[in-house]
Amino acid sequence: MNTSDTIRPTQGKLGILTAGLGAVATTFMAGVIAVNKGLSKPIGSLTQMGNIRIGKRTKGELKNPKIHDFVPLQDLRNVVFGGWDIFEDNVYQAAMNAEVIDKHLLNEIKDDLEQIKPMKAVFDHAWVKNLDGTHVKSAKTKMELAEMLMKDIEEFKSKNKCSRLVMIWCGSTEVYTEVKDVHQSIETFEKGLRENNKDISPSMIYAYAAVRCKVPFANGAPNLCCDTPAITELALLNEVAIAGKDFKTGQTLMKTILAPGLAARALGIKGWFSTNILGNRDGEVLDDPSSFKTKEVSKLSVLKNILAADQQPDLYSELYHKVNINYYPPRGDNKESWDNIDIFGWMGYEMQIKINFLCRDSILAAPVVLDLALFLDLAQRANMSGVQEWLSFYFKSPQTAPGLEPIHDIFKQLMKLENTLRHLKGEDLITHLGLDYYEEFVAQ
I need a labelling partner for 241 at 20 to 30 A (CA). Which of 213, 257, 424, 438 fits? Predict the structure, then answer.
């Protein structure tokens, strides 16, 4: 059945709001503006650079259109940006301070970037202990803070004449917490907001405000946020698309590429030691053990899922997985990661793999923000409410429907994403089984 008729068109402007205007968000915004001015290309963005296969190879139907030509995505020339931050710097100043993008390029788009000024943020030092916000909202209750955010959302939409909005959490990693009683339902969560419950974090308040305003929301950090029963329930009730969590960028991106290959060849792994150094705001935040715990849980879950030691005890039951992150200011946003992987093969003979990845954290994250914004908007226009598991491709710790284990294998994630797009357009799903060829051969 062709479902493309049920996708609402991309009429009007799309407003992309980010909670946090640090290195990731400013790199994302500056990049889109540079692309629109013909100064750069959207490399790393699946929505802009990726192709999708449709049709059968054996019947002369095979096509490989660009994804943005296949499904109705918002044109980049018709998006506007806004956001909140704990510092007053406009996006040009924040991008200059982040030192990710070349200053000559930033100066070419300075006028555009200076127009994007942060709204006062919701911030609580108890949740991000290594930062002190100076551009923050003040209120008696957390419900009042949520109402302030909702007012910001509506005013931004009206002022910028947007027909639709999406929101992406690009803020810092918060202190580790697990689901508590206050997170179990809409009623308990709203009661907690009114009573200033200590287990409700700023990111949860942003998620609540977005979903209440029927704005699709994605969480780019590893902290508990829209993946609580309360926010998931509210998203279904309000028919809003949500996704999370933790942008999959550097070291974990490499793990989700390499680990499936080793598992596919039935090679054993005894140990996987990972360490990182980075000097941006994210590194400063993660220097606090309570925030690092949140990130550690997200990063450790990847190998456990891909390798499934309970199914392959001879290969992975003794796996020792260690992750370190070290704050090192001289590196700035240019994160460096090292991986030592102790593997074994035929008859138990041992081998090693070593990876030294000198990556640029925000350069890898920026196209993820773009794709999530455009795909969430697509999901919303296609009436796909609740958790968008097909967007797991972009996350370290993908949010799923209750009771389901996430898929971490990046190749399976990509197949799920592409098949979702095919389904939306009424195209046959691709399984790579080649049964059409086999059936034709048998018939002959």
Answer: 257
